[in-house]
Design brief:
By secondary structure, this protein is of the alpha/beta class. Helices cover about 45% and strands about 15% of the residues.
C-alpha cells in the first residue's frame, strides 16, 4: 500500500521528542523522509535511529529564533532529500508564571521561540514551496491560544498569534499552491504534563468531555491529514485536538 506521504520530504521543528517526534514517526510510516530540527543533539541522534536511520531521516541543530538557522534547516532538507513538501512548526518552550511575577525575559523568550520561530519557518518554507507550486505548512498552536490560561500570558499570546499568522500567511500564498493550517492541542499526555501536580491534572480532566488526556499520536494523525492530499481544499483552518475541552 502506498503511504499518504510517499515520496514527500518533511521538516519538523522540535521533532526529537514529544508531539514533534510522534509527527515525524507518523510521516515516516506514511512514506515521507523527514528532517528534524532541534537543539538537543543527543535526542536528535536517538530519534533518527528510531525513525529508521539516515535513509529516511536526518537531523540538523536549529534554534528556531534564528532566521539563518531555520533557513539552513530547510535548505538541508532540499540538499539531502531533494525537496521540501511539508513543514511542521512545532518547536516550543514554556516559562509559566503569573503576569505579576513574569519577567520581561520570560515573556520575550516564549514569544520569540513560538511566534517568531513560526514566522521564520512559515516565511522561509513558503519561499521554497511557491517556486514548486505546492507544499503544506502545519503550525502547532494550543488551546491556550484560544481561551488563555492563568500563568501563561506569554504562551497564550504566542499561541494565539500563531493562529493569526497562519490565517494571514495562508491568504498570501494560496494562489501559489501552498496550504497553511494550524492545530490546537489540548491536554496531551507527555513527560511534561504528567509532571503536573495531581490537583492541576484533575482540574483539567473535569473540562474534557471525552474524559481522558490525548496521546501525541492523536495530534500526529491530524498533522498527517493537513500534510497530505486528504486536506487538499483546506487552508487557513484551525483544528482543535482537545477531546472536546473548552469547545
Amino acid at each position: 500500500m502506498v503511504g499518504l506521504l510517499e515520496g514527500k520530504v518533511a521538516v519538523v521543528t522540535g521533532g526529537a521528542q514529544g508531539i514533534g517526534f510522534a509527527i515525524a514517526r507518523r510521516y515516516v510510516d506514511e512514506g515521507a523522509r523527514v528532517v528534524i530540527g532541534d537543539l538537543d543533539e543527543e535526542a536528535m541522534a536517538k530519534a533518527v535511529a528510531e525513525l529508521g536511520g539516515d535513509t529516511v531521516a536526518a537531523a540538523v541543530r536549529c534554534d528556531v529564533t534564528s532566521y539563518d538557522d531555520v533557513d539552513a534547516l530547510l535548505r538541508a532538507a532540499v540538499d539531502t532529500f531533494g525537496s521540501l513538501d511539508v513543514l511542521v512548526n512545532n518547536a516550543g518552550i514554556t516559562r509559566d508564571a503569573t503576569m505579576r511575577n513574569m519577567t520581561e525575559d520570560q515573556f520575550d523568550q516564549v514569544i520569540s521561540v513560538h511566534l517568531k520561530g513560526c514566522w521564520n519557518g512559515t516565511k522561509l518554507a513558503s519561499l521554497i514551496m511557491r517556486e514548486q507550486k505546492s507544499g503544506a505548512i502545519v503550525n502547532i498552536s494550543s488551546i491556550s491560544g484560544k481561551v488563555g490560561m492563568v500563568g501563561q500570558t506569554n504562551y497564550s499570546a504566542a499561541k494565539a498569534g500563531i493562529v493569526g499568522l497562519t490565517k494571514a500567511a495562508a491568504k498570501e500564498v494560496a494562489h501559489h499552491g501552498v496550504r497553511i493550517n494550524a492545530i490546537q492541542p489540548g491536554l496531551i499526555r507527555s513527560a511534561m504534563t504528567e509532571a503536573m501536580p495531581q490537583k492541576a491534572w484533575d482540574a483539567k480532566m473535569t473540562e474534557i468531555p471525552m474524559g481522558r488526556a490525548g496521546e501525541p499520536e492523536e495530534v500526529a494523525k491530524v498533522a498527517l491529514f493537513y500534510a497530505c492530499d486528504l486536506s487538499s481544499y483546506m487552508t487557513g483552518t484551525v483544528a482543535e485536538v482537545t477531546g472536546g475541552r473548552l469547545m
